[in-house]
């Protein structure tokens, strides 16, 4: 299997583009199910998860075409058209590999009146149930049945009526599923305590471009007036705030200076605040975000939280950075249990991190050492790359399929900034 080999200690400097957001793309793609007209998405990142989702859409009989890239295109351009949907079943094999497949449940139900999706099963960063996805669809009028590891949602004759739902816990995915179902309901729906991550705003903006009527976009109270049909659209996927934050940590740990072209500060204020608290300079520029670090890093205390709080998807990367701070940082993970699997690996590189339940205490060290490491999820893997960039000697990161799920051209972008990094084949 491929691995990434990093010779640490090189200061990063220069400019790199930020790719389209993976998590936005994964909720924009299923919107193609909502109309028989073409949906063209621009700025899609080239990632294994996007290929996986394309495969899933093909399974439903949806045509997908990727345009040849032109210099004026950002990222990849894909046109999807669900003229006729030939299957409403998302099988176990595809859902198991890609948890975001659950996001077809809402739009498929709204368009076809029924949808069957395999239960996603366990996941490396915790239990990750889908009860809220099902409860909110029930509140919109669906009947839910479970059998043989599959969940089947059925709309009454005449379509889903719509309804009210108050989320007991903020859920990004359940809010997305609810929105994609509610836009085609016969009546009005209201969602309280909805997620308001920038990716949800991106989803709402696409749905509105397709003819949906949504009030309260960007807030936790959404009102959706159902419409009988949606039309096609051309839409540009938002920049990836997690990728941008990850490269900001990478630059900072090397005492570097980089510009992240296309990054939007308003999408990542909590990350920017954490970096500034650590002593890193972060400034918005007309073309993106400028990040620079020199001298000692300071420790930081924070908890992960739903947006606008500090994103759980940035916790591992910030932790890697704080390994080199002068003093002890305290990070608390409130969204997912079992999201500290990078800790033993970072400790093998010379970090001093203790965990107690959901809290991690990161005692800063002067030196990290290169090592053979592997992680069991995407962001954890990136934290090891970040540590490797600042470590003395060589770091080999194994299990690259995690990184390939979420970071487009990782080694190319880091090499562009001056990192000594390469991907090598073999076991
Ligand atoms: C999305 C992101 C993921 C990010 C997470 C939190 C995508 C493809 N993935 O995941 O990268 O880390 O948001 O920002 O966009 N929960 C329930 N029942 C449910 C659903 C969720 O209890 O039915 C709980 C989860 O276990 C978790 C919390 O709610 O504790 C938040 O999860 P959620 O926001 O749903 O995460 P995802 O949408 O799966």
UniProtKB/TrEMBL annotation:
Described purpose of this protein according to its UniProt entry: Cell wall formation. Adds enolpyruvyl to UDP-N-acetylglucosamine.
Entry protein name: UDP-N-acetylglucosamine 1-carboxyvinyltransferase
Keyword Transferase recorded: yes
Reactions it catalyzes: phosphoenolpyruvate + UDP-N-acetyl-alpha-D-glucosamine = UDP-N-acetyl-3-O-(1-carboxyvinyl)-alpha-D-glucosamine + phosphate
Keywords assigned: Cell cycle, Cell division, Cell shape, Cell wall biogenesis/degradation, Cytoplasm, Peptidoglycan synthesis, Pyruvate, Transferase
List of residues binding UDP-N-acetyl-alpha-D-glucosamine: 99, 128-132, 313, 335
Residue ranges constituting the Enolpyruvate transferase domain according to the UniProt record: 7-414
EC number of the protein: 2.5.1.7
Family membership: Belongs to the EPSP synthase family. MurA subfamily.
Residues bearing PTM 2-(S-cysteinyl)pyruvic acid O-phosphothioketal: 123
Binding site for phosphoenolpyruvate: 22-23
Record's subcellular location: Cytoplasm
Pfam families: EPSP_synthase
Transmembrane parts of this sequence: none
NCBIfam families in UniProt: murA, PRK09369.1
MF terms (GO), sorted A to Z: UDP-N-acetylglucosamine 1-carboxyvinyltransferase activity
Superkingdom of origin organism: Bacteria
Pathway given in the UniProt record: Cell wall biogenesis; peptidoglycan biosynthesis
Active site: 123 (proton donor)
């Amino acid at each position: 299997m491929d691995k990434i080999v990093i010779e640490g200690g090189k200061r990063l400097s220069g400019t790199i583009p930020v790719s389209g957001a993976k998590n936005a793309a994964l909720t924009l793609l299923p919107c193609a199910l909502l109309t028989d007209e073409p949906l063209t998405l621009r700025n899609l990142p080239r990632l294994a998860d996007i290929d996986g989702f394309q495969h899933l859409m093909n399974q439903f009989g949806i045509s997908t075409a990727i345009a040849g890239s032109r210099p004026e295109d950002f990222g990849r351009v894909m046109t999807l058209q669900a003229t006729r949907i030939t299957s409403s079943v998302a099988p176990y094999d595809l859902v198991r590999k890609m948890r975001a497949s659950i996001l077809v449940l809402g739009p498929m139900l709204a368009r076809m009146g029924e949808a069957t999706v395999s239960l996603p099963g366990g996941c490396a960063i915790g239990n990750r149930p889908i009860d809220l996805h099902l409860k909110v669809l029930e509140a919109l009028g669906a009947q839910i049945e479970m059998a043989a590891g599959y969940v089947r949602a059925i709309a009454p004759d005449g379509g889903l009526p719509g309804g009210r739902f108050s989320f007991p816990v903020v859920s990004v995915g359940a809010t997305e599923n609810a929105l994609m179902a509610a836009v085609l309901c016969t009546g009005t729906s209201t969602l309280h305590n909805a997620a308001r991550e920038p990716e949800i705003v991106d989803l709402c903006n696409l749905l509105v471009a397709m003819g949906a009527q949504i009030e309260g976009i960007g807030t936790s109270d959404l009102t959706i007036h159902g419409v009988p049909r949606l039309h096609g659209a051309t839409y540009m996927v938002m920049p990836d705030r997690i990728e941008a934050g990850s490269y900001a940590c990478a630059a900072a740990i090397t005492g570097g200076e980089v510009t992240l072209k296309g990054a939007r500060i308003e999408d990542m204020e909590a990350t920017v605040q954490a970096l500034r608290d650590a002593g890193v300079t972060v400034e918005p520029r007309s073309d993106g975000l400028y990040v620079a670090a020199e001298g000692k890093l300071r420790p930081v205390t924070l908890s992960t939280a739903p947006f606008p709080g500090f994103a759980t998807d940035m916790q591992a990367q910030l932790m890697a950075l704080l390994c080199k701070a002068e003093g002890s940082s305290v990070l608390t993970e409130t969204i997912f249990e079992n999201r500290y699997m990078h800790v033993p690996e970072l400790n093998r590189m010379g970090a001093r991190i203790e965990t107690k339940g959901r809290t991690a205490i990161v005692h800063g060290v002067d030196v990290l050492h290169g090592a053979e490491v592997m992680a069991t999820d995407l962001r954890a893997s990136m934290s090891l790359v970040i540590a490797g960039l600042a470590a003395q000697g060589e770091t080999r990161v194994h299990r690259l399929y995690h990184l390939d799920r979420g970071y487009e051209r990782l080694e190319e972008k880091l090499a562009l900034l001056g990192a000594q990094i390469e991907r090598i084949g073999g076991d």
